[in-house]
Design a protein that fits this description.
2 copies of one chain form a homodimer. Chain A is an alpha/beta fold. The first copy, chain A, folds into 3 domains: 56 residues, 434 Repressor (Amino-terminal Domain), CATH 1.10.260.40; 126 residues, 3-Layer(aba) Sandwich (Rossmann fold); 149 residues, Rossmann fold (3-Layer(aba) Sandwich). Helices cover 42% and strands 16% of the residues of chain A. Chain A contains 12 helices and 12 strands. In chain A, helix 2 crosses helix 3, helix 8 packs parallel to helix 9 and helix 10 packs across helix 11. Chains A and B meet through helix 4, helix 5, strand 2, helix 6 and helix 11 of A and helix 4, helix 5, strand 2, helix 6 and helix 11 of B. Strand 2 of chain A pairs antiparallel with strand 2 of chain B, so a sheet runs across the interface. Chain A binds a DNA duplex through helix 2 and helix 4.
Chain lengths: 345, 345
DNA sequence: CTGAAAGCGCTTACAG
DNA sequence: CTGAAAGCGCTTACAG
């Protein structure tokens, strides 16, 4: 049997011997309904296994209970963690989430979805200012919140980590421990996160009269393979670096792989530091020193601001910046060590 | 400015000096419209920056262009990879996806969403037969496809890997290489994938007169920490195993961590094998031998079957099973090796 | 407390 | 080829 035929509030009305309007009232939880009628309606609804059509409701109320989420590639575990948090927090607020990524033109698709009433609002976790459509939509007051990455030129709610301070902490840490040949592995400077980490890192180095030699700067795709290739080429230099800062954990994990493959002991010969503190960074086989982003907090703030804005479209845009912590682990441990590990020869 | 006021087809009609019905026709791409009128409408739509209201359209057509996806916890990277594939394949078909996980009662929520017309159909990547609601909905012909995990007792489209054969391949491999104290790390037998991997593995062992000693069986939560704890306790045995099969990669990666922490050389003293072949299994720092699931293929089949069923609700349910491959890597390499790696002491 | 009616913004027979 | 009209399934003033 495939009973895809809709049962409607009219069917319930007939069975409960009331008007369709009353069915709607009861099921909306309205106050002013007699107990007797309420019971009849509830029982009829249960008997017919009725679910109100959310589309019809949404068309009247202009709230559909769905928010959009735009992330970058899920192959970056940071975005998986953001998505997981969004999923949890949204569920707590009774919201469903629909997902896009920035590869398949997700940004524009998300804005379209707002205009088409398919979603109530959108959380951008990977905004850039490349898309004029996006910029225009945000500027015109679409219910949008940016988390993780920010866009200066636009006035909307934005929640981020203090990426500048994070980069600065890494530089301080390198300086304190006498690292001198310092490399930086990053990519295009499109994302605010990357630009700020870079600025914080380089500013502090410069303050100490240090810098990243141009031969030690790598701009690669933001993938594991990108980090791996960058590190390989750094380790092939006659004067290889003694510390490498990677602009995110995915790059850093790729760099660890390269060091492992090329038998460069980490941290004995070279330190590696990432950014984000994704879950696997704390696995003991990887044990990556990194800057922790408070992902859950970013997401909670983001969804709160979005719901807030839906109720109050005119309120001023808020900017929130959260502090970050340096998590020191094995990839920069200072004591010497030797440890056997599996490897295919 | 916050122009959240909808522009409708009536507005376009007024500007283009045609009826609202004609606007709808043009925008639906109907054939029988004169070029002259078509152009007027298209230009008016563009001028007013018009997007048709997808809800209203969906209410008439009973197709909203959204499919639901239910996964288990995204902390298992397999589900991230499934989700990524669903996202890509769905985008290619012009579909949006809405996401649930099985923690927050996502299964029931997904079924509700079908009944409420919020989604056209649902892909379950982590079905179990625990939920009567789910079972009933599927049995009654709701547009649902199961991928990855299957449920025997229910008649609907199902796409899976040959988990039984995968488990058997691991057993064969262990036997060929004279592994004798064989451990098995798994969890509750709720999921079909787990049950079948287990059955295939144990059957082949039994055929050779081997078995998993009860002291070498561990049932733990399906998390990295679960795998880690299981492996720790195995390595504390006076007669520790020389090969460990973990029911999925996340467990196996946790087991690798435990071996690393307890300085048990892998594979010299003990082999570790996982299941799924998630992306990081091939990272050289982890280099996990595992059984590869053809994730992309599962997803492509799943979405194809779902779209197919929407067009043809009455057709017979299909069952598809895909073959799997054993990917041999460093966690079972046979040659001795010694390698230094970073570690915090 | 309850019902009749309007309307959310579309699509699609039905006429012409 | 185009328009007038009905209707998808709800919510919500407006009467009574």
């Amino acid at each position: 049997m495939k009973s895809r035929s809709q049962i409607t509030s009219h069917d319930i009305a007939k069975v409960a011997k009331v008007s369709q309007a009353t069915v709607s009232r009861v099921l909306r939880g309205a106050e002013n309904v007699s107990d007797e009628v309420r019971i009849r309606v509830v029982e009829a609804a249960r008997a017919l296994n009725y679910s109100p059509n959310a589309l019809a409701r949404a068309m009247r109320t202009s709230r559909i209970g769905v928010i959009g989420v735009v992330v970058a590639r899920l192959s970056n575990p940071l975005y998986t963690e953001i998505l997981r948090a969004v999923n949890e927090v949204a569920a707590d607020s009774g919201l469903r989430i629909v997902l896009w990524d920035t590869e398949g033109a997700g940004e524009v698709a998300a804005i379209d979805a707002i205009r088409q009433s398919l979603v109530d609002g959108v959380i951008f976790a990977a905004a850039t200012h490349t898309s004029p459509v996006l910029k225009e939509a945000i500027a015109s007051g679409a219910p949008v919140v940016l988390i993780n990455r920010t866009v200066d030129s636009v006035e909307c709610d934005q929640v981020s980590s203090d990426n500048f301070a994070g980069g600065a902490k890494v530089a301080d840490y390198f300086i304190q421990h006498m690292r001198r040949r310092i490399a930086f592995v990053s990519g295009v400077r499109e994302a605010s996160t990357i630009r700020e980490r870079e600025a914080g890192f380089l500013d502090v180095l410069a303050r100490e009269g240090l810098s990243v030699d141009s031969s030690l700067l790598r701009r690669v795709p933001f993938t594991h393979e990108g980090g791996r290739m960058a590190m390989r080429s750094l380790l092939e230099l006659s004067d290889a670096p003694d510390a490498v800062f990677c602009a995110n954990d995915l790059l850093a994990l790729g760099a660890l792989d390269a060091a492992f493959e090329m038998r460069c002991p980490v941290p004995d010969k070279c330190w590696i530091v990432g950014f984000d503190d994704v879950e696997m960074a704390s696995w003991s086989t990887l044990s990556l020193t990194t800057v922790r982003q408070p992902v859950r907090t970013l997401v909670e703030d983001g969804i709160r601001l979005l719901l807030d804005r839906l109720d109050n479209p005119a309120r001023e845009a808020e900017q929130i910046v959260h502090p970050v912590d340096l998590m020191i682990r094995g990839s920069t441990g200072r004591k010497p060590y030797v440890h056997e590990s599996r490897r295919q020869l």
